[in-house]
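Title: Comparing notes on inverse folding

I've been comparing how different people in this forum approach sequence design from structure. To keep things fair, I'm posting one structure and asking everyone to reply with a full sequence. Here's the target:
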């Protein structure tokens, strides 16, 4: 049996293929059942439905960014001893992408029109983090996940009370993100300098504010 050696060109094409699938969907089949699958659909007023749709769009944009960050890091980072764990995290991020996409459609709205920008920006940031070295790259994962968790908490508080389906998806995501952060800490993540954390918070604010509307 022969193992195929991938050339730089093959890798480029694979990367582009992955990017286009992430941005334009549908997300690849999730590895786990949707946590909202067995829950009944709620009754919404028009305003409540719109709010839930917008919040889930923001979460979906965040997951597009998560995919791009991991794919960018995978391109440049060595991560020899942690690659398996990071790959498992990437599989779970794909579940999040698929679940939020499904919920957005159930709520009758669309994913962010700016997805290609969220993807490109996050891919570049991920690739830079990978170049900086594994401990910084892992530190970046930890900080990203911590910010995502705070963000999910705020959305869980803002969602219409009766929206059990969106809530179930966000709660499973919160559990997974916390696990990703713990895994990265255990793998030797360095604590990022405060200005880097602030810059990351600013970038994510820009994304979440914009994806709420478009
Ligand atoms: Fe995620
Ligand atoms: Fe995550």
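Reply #1:
Here's my take.
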């Amino acid at each position: 049996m022969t193992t195929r050696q991938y050339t730089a060109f093959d890798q480029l094409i694979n990367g582009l293929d992955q990017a286009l699938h992430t941005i334009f969907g549908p997300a690849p089949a999730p590895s786990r059942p949707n946590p909202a699958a067995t829950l009944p659909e709620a009754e919404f007023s028009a305003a409540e439905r719109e709010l839930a749709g917008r919040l889930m769009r923001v979460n979906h944009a965040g997951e597009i960014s998560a995919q791009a960050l991991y794919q960018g890091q995978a391109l440049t980072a060595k991560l020899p001893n942690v690659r398996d764990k990071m790959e498992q995290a990437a599989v779970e991020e794909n579940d999040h992408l698929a679940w939020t996409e499904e919920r957005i459609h159930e709520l009758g709205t669309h994913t962010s029109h700016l997805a290609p920008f969220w993807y490109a920006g996050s891919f570049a940031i991920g690739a830079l983090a990978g170049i900086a070295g594994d401990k910084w790259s892992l530190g970046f994962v930890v900080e990203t996940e911590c910010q995502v968790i705070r963000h999910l908490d705020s959305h869980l508080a803002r969602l219409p009370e009766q929206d059990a389906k969106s809530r179930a998806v966000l709660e499973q995501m919160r559990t997974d993100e916390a696990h990703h952060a713990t895994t990265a800490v255990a793998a030797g993540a360095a604590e990022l300098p405060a200005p880097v954390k602030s810059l990351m918070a600013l970038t994510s604010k820009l994304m979440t504010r914009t994806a709420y509307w478009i």
